[in-house]
Amino acid sequence: MTTSANRSDRSDDDVLALHEMATKFFEAELLPHEERFAAQKHVDREFWNKAGELGLLCTSIPEEYGGGGGTLAHDFAVFDAQYRLGDTSFGNMVHSGLVAHYILAYGNEEQKRRWLPGMASGAIVGAIAMTEPGAGSDLKALRTMAIRHRDSYIINGSKTFISNGKHADLVIVVAKTDPAAGAKGISLIVVETAGANGYQVSRLLDKVGMKGQDTAELSFTDVRVPVGNRLGEENAGFGYLMKQLAHERLVIAVCAAAATEAAVAWTVQYTKERKAFGAPLFDMQNTRFELAQCATLARVCRVFVDNCIEQHLHGALDGATASMAKAYSTDIQGQVVDRCVQLFGGYGYMLEYPIARMYADARVQRIYAGANEVMKELIARSL
Hints:
By secondary structure, the chain is α+β, with helices and mostly antiparallel strands. The chain is 49% helix and 15% strand. The longest helix is centred in the middle third of the chain and has 37 residues, at 237-273. The protein is globular and about 80 Å long.
């Protein structure tokens, strides 16, 4: 981890120690099972419990709700550790980075005490269901309905590309509670999946990359949920989403910066070991120049993302800057990883090498949490 990312109420040493612990855990419990996780399209459920036991879940959630009691810097340390190892299968970024913070920000006291301790221990896996087959970045086009009937909401609709969808015990469903009000009629309804009649995981999706990440389609057919499971005020969900999306986009930027630096480090090592025409590849001027450019891009990306983290820790990160961070860092990730694959040559196209998996994994970074084209529009509106 870098210096500015570690500035928090706790010492830098605390965040660095968490990063080191997370790295060792992922090396021991995640990397050896990558092929199996990719084949089954999800990590083992027991993996969530192990991560919870070690304190790697919900590290920035207050201790009174079962969390680690740290700051967002602690979350970012865990995410950074995972992406530096080239792994994308563990959906903790959504679980700890997003879902837990929706509950912390908008849940009432009873909801926070009911759900957050289980999320911190791994007993509850969280997901958030925004995207639909006909509505991606355009949240106003949502068709999933949550119609109130006495003391319940009746949910009907479908969601797609839902991270942690298979294992989710708790799904924050973005739904229309006032269909005639457009964006002003959206609410956040928590579905507890165990025993929820009409709730179904339709299928696990077969993706180009991120093969081991649990990504599913969900369907809701007359799913009855207590009104007490709504987060925040009725019809206020769109505003909640807009506020939290800045945080989500920074989470992606953190992961992109870590993956970019890892790609450069792996490629430097490979080109110094791999020989061609009687000398290491690194001795060739083109190789050195390419890596010099990649290292520069990675450094600029890191400095920008760290600056955004510092702003965010002080509550000063605005939506436009978060959009810049997401768009820039993921663009740079794609550019650098592509160049690194070229320097690996034929081996860069073999999935046994992490750089090949990283190449496939990186592509979606420019799409989810708002496509980068949408990010540019959001940035332009602030000019």
